[in-house]
Every structure is written in C-alpha cells, then in structure tokens.
Specification:
The protein has 19 helices and 26 strands. Helix 7 packs parallel to helix 13 (403-423), helix 7 (259-267) runs antiparallel to helix 15 and helix 13 packs antiparallel against helix 14 (427-438). The mean pLDDT is 94. The strands form five sheets. It has an eight-stranded antiparallel β-sheet. The protein has a six-stranded antiparallel β-sheet with strand order 5-6-7-8-12-13, covered by helices on one side. The chain has a five-stranded parallel β-sheet with strand order 18-17-19-20-21, with helices on both faces. The protein folds into three domains: 3-236, Glutamine Phosphoribosylpyrophosphate, subunit 1, domain 1, CATH 3.60.20.10; 247-438, Glucose-6-phosphate isomerase like protein, domain 1 (Rossmann fold, 3-Layer(aba) Sandwich), CATH 3.40.50; 447-596, Rossmann fold, CATH 3.40.50. By secondary structure, the chain is an alpha/beta fold. The radius of gyration is 25 Å and the shape is globular. The protein binds 5-amino-5-deoxy-1-O-phosphono-D-mannitol. 5-amino-5-deoxy-1-O-phosphono-D-mannitol binds next to helix 9 and helix 17.
Amino acid sequence: MCGIVAYLGTREAPPILIEGLKRLDYRGYDSAGVVVIKGGGLVVRRSVGRIAALEEKLDAQIAGARVGMAHTRWATHGAPTEGNAHPHRDASGRLAIVHNGIIENYRVLKQYLETQGITMESQTDTEVLAKLIGHFYEGNLEDAVRRALRESRGTFGIAAIHADEPNKIVAARRGSPLIVGVGDAEYIIASDAAAIVQHTSQVIYLADNEVAIVTPEGFKTTNLEATPVDKHVDELEYTLEQLELGGHQHFMSKEIFEQPESLRTCMRGRIDLDDSRVVLGGLTSVARELINTKRIILTACGTAWHAGLVGEYLIEELARIPCETEYASEFRYRNPVIDFGTTVLAISQSGETIDTLAASREGRDKGALVLGIVNAVGSTIARETDAGVYLHVGPEIGVASTKAFTGQVAVLAMLAGFLGRRRHLSHERLHEYLEALAGIPEKIAHTLNLNNQCRHIAADFVNSENWLYLGRGIQYPVALEGALKLKEISYIHAEGLPAAEMKHGPIALISEDMPVVVLAPRGHWYDKSVGNIEEVRSRGGRVIAVATEGDTEIQHIAEHVLYVPDVPELLGPLVTVIPLQMLAYHAAVLRGCDVDKPRNLAKAVTVE
Ligand code: M6R
C-alpha cells in the first residue's frame, strides 16, 4: 500500500526521500511523487509507474532542498495517473500533503469546499484533505492540520508542509502507520521503519489521532485538540542487513531460506526444556484470564488466516479449548457473538491490516480478552491489543508471506503447549512436544535441500494454468497456503481443498493438464490421503506428493514425491509448507513474474 517518507534536516532531502521510497517499494504502488520547499515555494514532481520514472524528473530545481516529502501511491480513489499521484496541494499552491488511508467523508468535505469557491483537479480524497487544510490555514500549519483532521472521517497517515513555514513538517495518523525517526539534527518521518533504519534507530511511534510537529529546534506531539502528548523514543528492531538481499535473487527466496534461523529467534528463550514449560513473557499480565478462557476466536487475513487454522487444530488438540478461525473481514461486520470468557486472537505479520485491526477492536468493544500475534514491533495491532506475542522473525519484505507463516505457526504451537499444560497435558507429553518443536529449525534446514527438485517440478508444470492442492486435518490449511502462494506470485489459478471435498465437485476438473499437490505425510490421515492420490491417478491426473522420508510406497503412485523429514503430526505444517513455498517461487521465476512485487498486491492491506 501507499508509502510516505518526509525529511527535515541538514542534508539534501531529495536523495534521502528517493532512497526511502525505494525501501518502501516492496509494499506495492502504481505512481510516485515528491515535493520540496525551495526558493520560497514548493517544487513538486510526480510520475506514473516505477520510482525510476520519478527519479528522471528530479532536476536542478529540486536539488539541494533540506525539507521535503515523497509518496508512493496505490490507487483507491481515481486511476493511477500523474494528476492523482501525491503530493497534493491546497488552493494557494503553497501547502502540500502526502497521505495514506482513505478520507471517507471526502464527498461532503468537497461539496463544502466547492461552496467556498475551491475546486479540485484530481479525483482523490487526498486533494480534498489538502484543500481543507489550506482553507483553515491562518499562518500555523499544525493548527490547520488538526482542525481539518477533526472534520475528517476515515483513516490517515499524513505529512504536511507549507512554504510559509519552511522549517516545519506536521505529521498525523489515524489507522495508517506513521513513525518519526529521530536522527542527529534531522527527522525522517515514514509509514514504515524500512525507510528510516539506515538513518537512525531512534523512533517515535505515533498513536491514532496524534500529531507530530518537527522543526530544527526539536519535536513535539499533541492530540487533535492540541493537548500535548508525551512520547517515548523507542529503539528500532530492524537492522539494515535484514533489508538487503544477501546474495539471493529475490527477498522471497531469502526469506524462505532464513526460516531455520527466523524460527530459532522466534522460539529463543520461550521453550524451556529443562523445566518443560513455555515462557511467553508478553502474556504474563493476562495469563490467568487466558488460562480460564472458554473459547478462542482466531482472526486474520490471507496467510495469517491459514496459520490461524493450524493454530485451531493445535489449541483444540493440546488444550481442548473450543476454537474458531474467522476471516477478519467477515468477523468485523457480522455482529459476532462474543460471550464472557472469549479470547480474540488477532494474527498479523504487519500488525496494520485494516480488517484484522477492526476485528480486534470488535472483540475489545464486546469485552473479550484481545491478544495479538504480530511481527512488526510497535504496529497498531501490537499496541491496541491487551497483550500478545511477537514473532521476532525479522522484517518480511517479499509480498508473499513465508517466514511470517512459519513464525505464526510456531507461536501458536508454543501457545497451544502453554495452554495445554495448564488444562490437561501431562508434563511428559508436553516435554516430548516441546523437544520436537525446538528441533523444527533443523528439520526445516534439511527440507530446504528440496530446492532443486522443486525447481525441476515447477519447470515440468510451468505451463499448467490450474493446480489443485489437497490436504487433510492439520495439512488442510497447508494446502490452502500452498495454493495461495502459487496464485499470488505466478498468477496460476490454484485451489486448496480438504482432500475429501474433491469428490463433491472439484474431481470433475482432474485431467493430465492439472497438477495435483497432495500433502500425505505419515500420520492419522495417511491412508486416506493415499486413497485421494489413487483417485486422481485413475482419472489421468498428475500427482506431486509431499510425503515423509522413508515412505517408498508412495513413489509408485505419485509422479513426483517431495520427501520431508519425519516430525510429529501436529508440527507437520512447519515442514510440509516449505516445498510448497519453493514450488511457487520457482514457478513464478520461470514465468518471468515479479516475485517480490506481484501485480495488484500490496504487502500490508491498510485500506478496505
Ligand atoms: O500483515 P498481515 O499478516 O495481516 O497480512 C495478511 C495478508 O494480507 C497476507 O498474509 C497476504 O495474504 C500475503 N500476501 C500472503 O502471502
């Protein structure tokens, strides 16, 4: 989704702004723009398409400025054209804003402005906001911003400058993330820490309805009513190396291969094998309430929702607590029944997904205990929930989620163990489970050796336009995740199904043109999964099986077998998902797709 970078300091702003935009590039965008204060006025450049097109427009007129803002836009209101790209200016042309989010009442505000003789040049809600701020401007930018935002409904992360106050940036947020980086005699304001980390590790996370005013003299923060708000300066968790490719062709590949290490970090200090216990520090304050919970609702979107489905299996099996996994976008709007004793568990890599945030607020408003399982430290969901567990898998840059999925499953697996012991699991059974969980990073490292085989299989099927993924029990969410990975980055249509559902319709699709990936590791559902493979084979379908090492039988019925190490059934998704990530990756590379930035997609979906 859209990205914001703003700079005020002693260095040249344009290169810092462009570099910042490039760091946000992974979030997805369709146009870009920059504005600086120079020569007593504003200089604006905008372009459609990649940031490189904007760079070409950066001439001598813009060079040398010390204050400026830049933006990448992901179109919501109005097509991706230069005229709709940010920054947008007020009627005087001396005030500019960049904006993430949606001003929901922009039509009403626009009508009001039109009655004041102010007309619009673009189709955007952002221009309406820029003109409204300009309309209220009486020589003090922060007053005008606050006044306009008090009139605005919807979500925003904005930064604003005015040529009459050339040493000031005003930033504010509601619903869209905004972070103020505090450097040495400089400030970098951005919608994502990735644009800040190379300049400073000191940051201020703005909360909803807060305004930051930065000048060379320092910064201050207020609420929308102008009451001062005290803010902590926090330390960023990111490092610059984590944002580099490290020899890989794509971030997705890097992140797939990082999984042994990212899971070690995720579980470090949380699994105590000596005492056979799980230590989740982030839940200490709510432990009693959580242990006594009667029902858990896991809510999330996309890959995180798949992780939630795995979590449902784990928690029900180990802790015997009834669980339901809900799409956040549905849950938030359907007036869900949340009775006393319900816990809502919001799962999100970015911590900014608007539907997941709204679902957690729905839980909070109805009196549930609301927990977050989040990767991005300081993100909105992390701050708004009662308590939670961070993934600590490091920044995920590829749009296709990989290490966040395994991190989410690992956290849910630890949570299931934690709750299980307090409900009914024996010390011995928990110890055995935790030992296996702690050993998963090694098993994943071994599974990564399938990379070449995955490349060959992807090459074999690269022209197939429809794939089916089948799984049973705890492998069913893995089938969904494998299908999602393939479709989102290679644009091949793929469907994930509980294997038994195939007979109820989808079996009609089976033909030699349709690869069918069957998750068939040893365990409860093994014989039934083999039965499904037979059904596909007997109808001419071509099967790629994911099976347990040592299972030689399956070679006779599947065309390809991807062997994964033997792990306890409940932890199976952590290894079986790995070859599916690699298959999708290679299929996308072979089809010449932009793996890290698939078309139409954004890394964090912060608007509805
Ligand atoms: O940041 P979140 O985990 O809340 O994001 C949720 C989904 O948008 C995300 O998992 C999406 O489905 C991924 N692109 C899938 O790879």
